[in-house]
Amino acid sequence: MARTVTPLSDSKCEAAKPDAKDYPLFDGRGLYLLVKSNGTKVWRFKFIRPDGRAGLATFGRYPALALKAARDRRGEALELLAHGKDPIEHAKKVKLDVVNSRANTFKAVALEWHAACSRKWSIGHAATVLRRLESHLFPTLGATPIAELKARDLLVPLKAAEKRDTLETANRLRQYQDGILRYAVQHGHMESNPARDLVGATATGKTRQRPALPFDCLPELLQRINSYSGRPVTCLAMKILQLLFVRSSELRFSRWSEFDLKRGLWMIPGEREPIEGVKYAHRGAKMGTPHLVPLSRQAMVALTQLHQLTGHLELLFPGDHYHWKPMSENTVNKALSLMGYDTKTEICAHGFRAMACSALTESGLWEEGAVERQMSHQERNKVRGAYTHLAEHLQQRRLMMQWWADYLDANRQQHITPYDFAHPGAPGDNVVSIMRG
Fold first, then answer.
1. 10-101, CATH topology level
2. Pair type for strands 291-294 and 259-260
3. Which of 91, 92, 189, 366 has the fewest CB atoms within 10 Å around its CB?
4. Mean pLDDT value across residues 404-426
5. DSSP state of 125
6. What's the gap between Cα 279 and its chain centre?
7. What percent of the chain has pLDDT over 70?
8. Parallel, antiparallel, or unpaired: how do β-strands 54-62 and 259-260 relate?
């Protein structure tokens, strides 16, 4: 018959005196107060582990851990046992989780995420992301254990960016947070990703369209470019940019080694050799995959003229002061301003792309896929992006680039719409006759 145990009281615990040997004061259901010979009193809990072995847990010292608190700990242990869990192993896990939580701060996990992602990012993009993390997220969130973060915590730096009216930055930061916390979930640092709840939490700015002239203003633009009396290299940069409608950085950082003038092709690499002291000079084609640009007859003429000026150098468009540095990113826009154009509302360097894309589409001659490929609007699909994109629709793109150059020539005297130039009443001396042949 089991022995009846009279539960302890606070007064009995307090009055217990040390003896020559340690002795227990039982409270029942495995809990007892061990009174040691040195006067120390410790709460112990005796139990049977789920695997049948004897278990003995220490809860803490009395009176720091009072009788009621010790009974609460016993109740928690019995509940764990009822669910087949070992209280000692559970306590170890909780302690380890606390240690890991303190070590796995937002900053620590963010740097792990950044290192993992940097293997597929360009050097420049990786540096930009790290700079944004250090400037915007680490000061607010860096020291916080990532498992403790709530959506309201993540919102603080986003709202700060929104308040500064840097809405694009706020959106980028939210994307970084989502990636970092998703990484944390995947690696067992937290159970769920609260950043998913932040979609739409900050304002979004209106998409700013780059200014581009209407087609009926083309004759005047072409004449102003042709009459421009500035630096010859700048004038040729504007002509080549208009003929090839590549991105400004793709042109500014171009090297003569990328051109095959015999075959009439320009291969823009995915990434270029960096130039010391020149920001973003490593940039190549968009999204880091090579891009082919067929060269029209007019582009070849302009490049031949440029080669006479800079062919002995590495860069097509060196700066005014240092031949090993490219021309400024504002060079073309400044030239357009000197010609009398407002580069914020009328035409800018990027606007040549918009004009070319509109003309090619409105002509009705070209497949949408061919236009998209020549505009270097890529899918974020590694297989397609790395290989198929390079030469897809190449023959049609050769004809397309020649048609665009011919269209510009046709507009030097008077305006003609892309559609009318593509569908003349009689066969003309342009690429349309080749298409129809």
1. Double Stranded RNA Binding Domain (3.30.160)
2. unpaired
3. 92
4. 89
5. H
6. 18
7. 89
8. unpaired
Q: What long-range pairs does 120-126 form, CB within 8 A, spacing at least 24?
A: 122/271, 122/282, 122/283, 122/288, 123/271, 123/274, 123/282, 124/280, 124/282, 124/283
- Mean pLDDT is lowest, of 44-53, 183-192, 331-340, 417-426, for 417-426
Q: pLDDT category, 242, cuts 50, 70, 90?
A: very high
Is residue 270 within 8 Å of residue 289, measured between CB atoms?
yes
The CATH architecture to which 215-436 belongs is Orthogonal Bundle (1.10)
Catalytic residues: 247, 286, 350, 353, 377, 387
Distance CA 284, CA 303 (A): 19
**CATH fit for domain 106-198, picks 3.30.420.130, 1.10.150.130, 3.90.550.10, 3.30.565.10:** 1.10.150.130
Whether the CB-CB separation of 143 and 107 falls below 8 Å is answered with yes
Contact 105, 144 (CB under 8 A): yes
CA distance 367 to 374: 11
Phi-psi region at 30: left, alpha or beta (left = phi > 0; alpha = psi -120 to 50): left
323 versus 410: the higher-pLDDT residue is 410
Quickly state the pLDDT bin for 177 (edges 50, 70, 90). very high
**Cβ-based burial of 141 (10 A; exposed 0-12, middle 13-18, buried ≥19):** buried
